[in-house]
Fold these 2 entries.
Entry 1:
Amino acid sequence: MASSDTDDSASELLAIVWVLLTVSALIIIARLYTRAAVVKNVALDDHIMIFAWFFGLLFNTFISLSCHWGLGRHFWTLDPLHQVNAMHWNFTAQPFGILAGMIGRISFTVSLLRIIGPVDRFKKMVLLFLIIFQILVNISTIILIFVQCGKDINAIWDPALIKTAGAKCWSPDIQTYYGFFQSSVNAATDLALTVLPLLVLWSTQLKTAIKVTLGFLLGLSILAMAATVVKTYQLKNISARNDFTRNIVGLYIWTAVEFNVVFIGASISTLKPLFKGVKMFSRTSSRPVGYQLSRTGQKSSSHAHPSYKPESWSFSQLNSSKRDKGDSASEENILPPENQHRSGNGQDIKKTTVITIDRRNSNFNPTPEPVRFESVERGRAPSTEPPAAWNGSHAR
């Protein structure tokens, strides 16, 4: 079957892989800015994600070199030199595509380990198992790529050596079938990394709207699983060596989609501190509130409750540590307190004690008037009745 030299899908491949990598780079840069400038806590998972992105960069670089030599064009339209070089950079790119997705998943798994903390040992052991199993399966896939022709490694991308040098290679079906297994493991890992955060959120006492939002952001691994499933279907083209340079394009497109979705899904959930102004992310705290105590002739002073401690928090720094004794023992420390102390109904509370001193009486006996609670919320008049969340145990 004849084909025109202009029948080339390289431009489509290059456009997709570089646009995806650029988008993921912008998300990761925003992640690093958030962690370094806003949260001021660049953690291990951030460094791992940077490492993963550079493997994605190497994948794109070698794919670009392969396209220069003929990847995307029909194999029979290439001269022998272009055939060998296109295949060479083609196989060189494959390990970096595998490593980019694997390390990106490890970064997100490390984030989840910090969310879960040391309390839930079962979930922690599951995540550690996923890390180890990911490494074993994906590294063994890379090894298999380069040992399929034994010592004659050049025969992988130069089939002529099988005839001229007597090189012996495995059937391409072996790499295809093991690729099915490897991709199935990755898809199952993405599913686990979607379900586990949802299980953690389900056990908390957060509002439904916040649970849904957090669940959506932390559950973006489901998109990576979908991309992995499509990529698994494309693996069948590894065995189609008669037109390898053209048939393999779909596999590389979905490989790039897979690891970039992993990058974006694992990073976008860390950007929450950049959007503190969004009302739905605000927290209703059940901690004892701070208050102001005012006396006649004295300046007002503000005293924060001794049980309150400022927290530094990022979206991926959720932890399962228990609150102070004044809080419910079953509630997890999922969201941080705001800069202001709030009552159970979300209003600021100011406690004012007015003391009247009668100087005509030699026996000093200040008589406090009833405590008056004032709502700082606009449009509300002062009230002498304490709010529902105030139990009176913190009055001084």
Note: The first helix runs from residue 10 to 38.
Entry 2:
Amino acid sequence: MKKLILAPLLASFISVAHAGLDEGVAAYNAGNYELALKEFRPLTEQGNARAQYSLGLMYSDGKGVPQDYAQAVSWFRKAAEQGIARAQYNLGVMYSDGQGVPQDYAQAMSWFRKAAEQGEARAQYNLGLMYSDGQGVPQDYAQAVSWFRKAAEQGIARAQYNLGVMYSDGQGVPQDYAQAMSWFRKAAEQGNALAQYNLGVMYEKGRGVPQDYAQVVNWFRKAAEQGNARAQYNLGVMYENGRGVPQDYAQAVNWFRKAAEQGMAQAQYNLGGIYQNGRGVPQDYAQAVGWYRKAAEQGIALAQNNLGRMYENGHGVPQDYAQAVDWYRKAAEQGIALAQNNLGLMYAKGQGVPQNVVVAYALFNLASVDATTKGAANTEVAISKMTPKQVEAGQRLSSEMAKPNNLSKAIATHLTKSK
């Protein structure tokens, strides 16, 4: 669940004049916390709920007093029990985040509900989140939609975005891309980066609107400039492929790098490919290896295969067949036919592993289901060097390799039995 935000203290919050209260609020908003504390403290002792709420906020933020979540909870509770919606909301936040009290989603739900029923929009949004995530209540998408809608209609951008997601995914409501677009747009126009990114996706896929690559670029750019990694990556793809913008590899590199530096694996892989091929940047095998490695370590199978190829050829790293085999194996385990074929070649040539024609054949046979590899041709070459008994063993091994997550185990078992 996303971290929740405390309701602030605003002069507009005060609806009833009270000696000292207006002065305290003015002092707080001016940053004179010492004077604010002096004005609020006597009022809290008289049971003034708004002053109690204000003092809770000062303890929560550590303004004018040492930060003390337990004290914040105490004062929020006093005000909440007198019906102050913002205090109820903030008390819900404290329970949700486990600040000043043990984390307790059921208590958070209770206080959010009290505030939400008074029309507190942030509480309505948080109720929607908790129903959506099943925190403190059984997961209930219909209830999530109901509360997101109440908050969205009050202009809460995150609620508008989440309501768009519910319509897009058909959770709690019938799937409706036009409605999803409508709510994403409302949130996006308020600057919500996730909504801007999703609008770009909707235009790219033609969901709820005609496909429009110029609009895709427009919305991806807005989100990317706010640091959204997926938008940065996708904007890089648009520049790389010349969709919605003139093809521009330098711009593609720029946006892939921004996403890659945030740890986005697919962007790291793409950046590796760009450096390997010298598009938009001078060809640099060392940089290619660096970015492939980052993506490969996050499990991107094609990056693992390409890193294996770099080790096999000694591009950007010293030639190392054992490392090549290791990375080919990781990619082959994930079902990448090209890596299965490459690993088969290593076994056929005895590079990085003991030469073994049966294992090579089994891997070529496994890869041959993908016509873009040379698996089928390599299978025929291997058969020409094998006995009928070896071919039979290779076919059995290939069947074992095809089982989920069993490729390396199958090879190891075969090699052990062959000794």
Note: Residues 257 and 271 are 7 Å apart (CA to CA).
